[in-house]
Every structure is written in C-alpha cells, then in structure tokens.
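Progress against Task 2.4 (sequence-to-structure conversion) is shown through the following example record, which the project officer requested during the mid-term review.
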Amino acid sequence: MDNESAMMNKEKRKGEHILVCLSSSPSNVKVIKEAMNLAKAFHASLTAIHVRSSNDDNLSSEDRARLERNMHFAVLCGASVTTVIGDDIPQQVAEYAHVSNTTKIVVGRSGSRKKHFWSRAPLTERLILLAPDLDVYIIPDSVADFRRQNKGRFIQEQIGPTLKESLITLLILSLATLTGLSFTLLGFSKENIITVFILGVIVISVMTISPLYSALGSLASVLLFNWFFIEPRFSFHTYETEYAVTFLIMLITSLIAGTLANRMKNGARQSAREAFRAKVLFDSNQLFQKAESTSEIIRITANQITTLLDKDIVIFTRHDEKQLEKGIRFESTHSISEIDKSDSDEEKIATWVFLNQRAAGLNMVSYGTSKNQYHPIMLNSHCYGVISIHLGGVPLETFENSVFISILGECALALENLRNAEEKEQAALLARNEQLRANLLRSISHDIRTPLTSISGNASNLLSHYQYLDDETRRQIFTDIHEDSNWLIELVENLLSISRIENGQMEIHRSLDVLDDVIEEALKHVDKNIVDHNVRVNDSDEILLVNMDSRLIMQVIINLVNNAIKNTQSGSDIIIETEKGVGCVNLRVCDNGPGIPDKVKSRVFDMFYTAENKVVDGRRGLGLGLALCKSIADAHGGTLTLEDNKPSGCIFTLSLPTEEVKLDE
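Structure tokens generated for the chain above:
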C-alpha cells in the first residue's frame, strides 16, 4: 500500500508548475532559492515572473542592476523568466498564473501591514484573494520597491489633475449655482438648494476619474452655498450659528455621496472591462478550438490582437530549437505582408526573445531599447514563436496589456494542444506501420514457407530420382513448381504495386479504352481452375469507353475473378456484368458461393487481413489482392464496394468515372 500511495503522489505531482515573483529586493534571492527547492521537491517546472510597472523607470541604477542579477540567478536555478507589463502587480501575477496552468506561487513579503482603512491591502493578501484556487507560499522579503511603486501610482493616478476634468468640475458647479439661484427666485427652500449641490457632487464624481475632484466639489459646494444663499449673502459670514452644523453635514454628505459614486463608477468600469476581457477570451477560445493548423491559430491570434489594440504586429513562428521563421506582418487593417528585409533589429530582438524566453523592447528591463514590445508565445517552457507589437514608443495600458497576455496564453495553449495532437497522430501512425510490418513479416514467414518448401522438395526429388520417374510424374512435379513460382511472382507483384500506389510512385497512364475488350483480355490470364466454374459475361447494350489505365484495371478484374474462383465451390456461377451509371461505369463480379460474414466485410480490403475470412488473393491467404484492387480503384478516382448476392454469394462492384466522348462518323 505504501508503494501504491507513493506512486499516486508522484503521478499527482507530475504536472506541477511553480511561479516565483521577481523583484529588485536584496532578499529576492532567498525567495528564488525557496522556489527552486520547492520545484525539486515536487518535480515541477519553474517560471520566474517580473511585473514591469510604469514606475520601474524611477528605479535607481543599483535596483536595476540587482533586478538583472536576480533574473540571471533565476535562470541559473532552472527557471524560465518572463516579463509582463502592468501597474497592478497582484492582478498581473494572478492572470499569468491562470493562463500558464500554474499550481503554486512563491512570493516574498515583509512585516508591513495595511496602515489605514482606505489604503490597499498588502500584495500577498491581494494575491491570495485573486488566486484562491492556487497554493501561495509566502517567504519573508522586502517590499520597499512595491511600496514605492504604490506610492508613485497613487500620486500619479489619484492626485494628478487634468484640464478636461477641471473644466467639467467648474461647469457642473456653475450649473448647480445657477439652478440654486433660480430656486431662490421661485421661492424654494434652502433644503432643495442643498440637494442640488449634492447632486452636482455626484455628477462630478461620475464624470471625472480622479477622486480629488469629488472632494474639491464637496468643499466648493459648501462654500458656494454659503456665499450665494446664506445671509449675509456674498460673504463667508453667517448670522446664525446653526448653519455651521448645516455646512458640516452638507460637506460630509457630499463627500460620502461622491465617494460612493466613485466606487460605483470604478466598479462598473472594472465590470465592463472584465466582461470585455471575458468576451475576447471566450471568442478566442472558440476560434482556437476550431483551428486545425498552426497557420490558422497564428492568423486568429493576429486578428484578435490587432482588433483589440489597433496596432500593427509581426509574428515569428518557430522553425527549430534555435531559429525562427521569417516574420509575417499583420496590419491593423488585417492585411498581411512579409516584414522588410532591412529591418534587421526586429529579427535580432525577436531571436533573442525566442532563445531566452523573455519579453524585451519598450519599457523592459531586459534586452533592447526598441520602441516595440516583444513577447514569447510559450507554454511549459516550450516557445512556439515571438510576437512584436509596433507601439511607436507609447506603452500599452494596463488593462490592454492584461488582455493581450491572456490571448497569448490562449494561443500558446492552442498550439500546445495541436502539437500534442500531431505527436499523438505520429505515434499512432508509427504504431500502425509497425503493426503492418509485423503482419507482413508474420504472413510472409508463414505463407511463403509452404511454396518454397514445395519448390525446393520437388527440385531435390528431380535431381535425385529423375531417371526413376515416369513422364507423367515428372510433368506433375514441373507443374507444381510452375504454379508455386507463379504464386510467388504474383505475390511480389502485388506487394510492389501496393507499395508504389500507397507512396504515390506508380504512374497511371490513362487512355480511352473499351471496357469489354479489357474484360476479354483479363479472362485470358485468370486462374486455370476457371474451367471448373460457370463463367458468364453480360455485356452492356452500348459501347462503354472509360479513361483508365487498362493494365491496372485488367489486374483488378483478374484479382476479383480469381478471388471468386478460389472461394467458391466447383460448378458455381461467376457472372461479370457492366452497365453505365450516372457519371460512371459499373463493373460487377458476382458469385453464388458461401459469401462473407458480416463481421468480416468491413475489413476485406485491409492489407494482410485474413482472420476467418476466406476471401484472399491466393490459396495460402496473404490477403493482398483485394487491397491492391481497392488502391487501384482509389487511384482512378473510383470506388470498389462489396455487397451480398441474394440468396448467397458476393458482389464486388468497381465504379469508374466516365467522360462524355463524341465519336466522329
């Protein structure tokens, strides 16, 4: 039981894939070592991921050098290194983990905690929430770089004002003020005016991106309400102290309303993005499932990415382990052209990405300073190619990049499935060839031994006792030797003919011939035992001209008639019929023998198949004659079928395509 449990655990761990997060932290080496030990323990593949954010440009030269050293150390530990772009590090890691079939994530963490209720949760906590189905191993690490990135991102995204949003805020506040003045003229109460300003704050929150405008709108609403609508008007003084409470409640209400509106807006935007991402991935997955070739998968990937990004891309497919094919450019208009031969840098960077299995180009710590981005199309450490996105120096947005990475993951998975299917098909073909070879050797060794023994024995008898044998005995021995030799010659010819047809090496010389003449000539070469059967030819009422190789069709007729002779009792009827069908000519060989069992019919045209079947090409049963007939029929674009002849016997029907022929008078 212990051995059985160990085997089950080993099989379970066989498909493990571990993902370790890279950073410029000095203690990241420890994280990589722990991931390497974990990969060894689970016999798993190891991938190291670096999330390249917009704040990586602010890294010091020391941090950059340390990051490069950490990447190099990961490679030395047997990891394949990949780089993705995005500011939301946990989100990018979780998405890559899901598309790359990761089972375990190793990440570093320090003792930092969430400081305020409005601040974001630490990286490790968010990663666990985003990937609840994966095992997350947390190693003590320094997150100073993450904290610096988050701080920079907060200043850049949350605080940074824009002219457009400033004008929108001013316009809405102006409209709220004018509406309040109109309400005053109409005699409305101040409570209605307060509601108008709160509504204005909500509209500002919805129409602007930065939460800064929501807060400024709340404060400005209180000040405007005090200036225009509280006595004394046009000043910030008030005669009644109760208005101070009103101002405070109004400010708090505006801030809460604006915050809730911002959260709802962000949630709606995130939901819309997730829905769009899910639709793109679903459409891609559906298209990939229908793809049947590498070129079709590449075309689908290119169409999806150019539609998503509206950027020109170049895809380099794999030629061998160290070389890429020449890239194909897919323009945003979906037109296709080969890349310019003079663009040597693009091919050079793509080759580097292919060999190192790492992203490069724009905003990448790794190779190159190109204005384009280069990403490997890879899965399970097998790189299928490289994709280059022409960005013109403008990096992708975080969301666009996440969808792009997901499509690349789907593309790599589709290529992996196609490769597995091709390998499975090749293995099945090899197994089939091995089975055919084994059947051939077994059949030849078993069936050729008898005629060769007969020939050898009869020849030895003639050599030793020729003068003691009478003429009749000698004639019979010579006849037996001749028949056995002819059977061997026929066997070899059938083998060679089938081999040439199956390999496409047999030349078919077509010409218009009268089918009845071919039948007449074939009957001159059938088995001599034909005299023991009643053979009748029922000719068609009209002359049947067929564009065929007469020599091969004659061989088919000979094999079919010999098959009927050897598998029916003496005195049986063998009828050869011809008729003109729709676009074809039909030739039937009918007999009233014992017939063929239903369970055998589906395999009578298989090479070397005899089993219980008596329908074979010779008395010793190698099973080649009918297979040869089927191959010749297929080579002519025709068919060969088998059906029962009621009440007993078989009907083999050869159908050959015909052409309209005009005979000159």
